[in-house]
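Form P-L/3: holo structure prediction, ligand fe (ii) ion.
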Amino acid sequence: MSMLERAEAAERAMSEELDRTIVKSVIYVSGDRDPRVPLTRPDNGKLVMMGQDPRLPRMLERPTLFDFFKYRFGPANHLMQSARLAQKNGVAEKLVLACLLHDIGIAGFIRGDHGYWGAQMLEPYVDEEVAWAIRYHQALRFFADESVGYAYPKMYVKLFGADYQPDPYIQRDYQYAREHKWYMSARLICVNDLYAFDPTVQVQLEEFTDVVGRHFRQPKEGLGWDASPSAHMWRTIMMPTKYL
Ligand SMILES: [Fe+2]
Ligand SMILES: [Fe+2]
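OUTPUT (holo model):
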């Protein structure tokens, strides 16, 4: 058996233990599998997953931003430590929120283009400037700004190689952001973006209750169940294995 076949067999065995069949979306497996080959639903007589996956912590009926942090965003130390650093540096409160949320694209969803995804998820619920800053931190991360002491991250040399050149769309968006009145807001996310988080520093989400309360418009129906243009993204994070 190849590695992929073994993984698929393990998956079948696992899904047989569940009441419902889980068919992974293409993006879960694209690359491991050739996306030109259709993903088929195992013919096991079971119903398919159409709600919350029992392997995941159950989301509350009207989930809040903090519920997503607790049950879907993984240990969000990087985000909390960045927000705390921003607070310590005297950054305006709504930009502390931007720091707290800047990587929720990665934390809950997907790595590539996470700044754009995160901004889109958040747009209906935060100040326009906060979403803007999150969108453009993506591009600004790749470009130094000596005036605020931001150097090109050493970590990027390690991750991408010394001769890495950002894609043309990142360069274009950087040029655009550079001239924008909110440039410094996105830049402040980069300045307070902590790469090497300190495992000895414990930050509690509750430290940001007031910041979130003042600057995040929590929908009364719960995130995902409201009718905002990005509610479906929150639902996908809540129920990533929903069949349709
Ligand atoms: Fe980021
Ligand atoms: Fe970050």
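COMMENT: The pocket of fe (ii) ion (ligand 2) is lined by residues 78, 102-103, 193 (CB under 6 Å).
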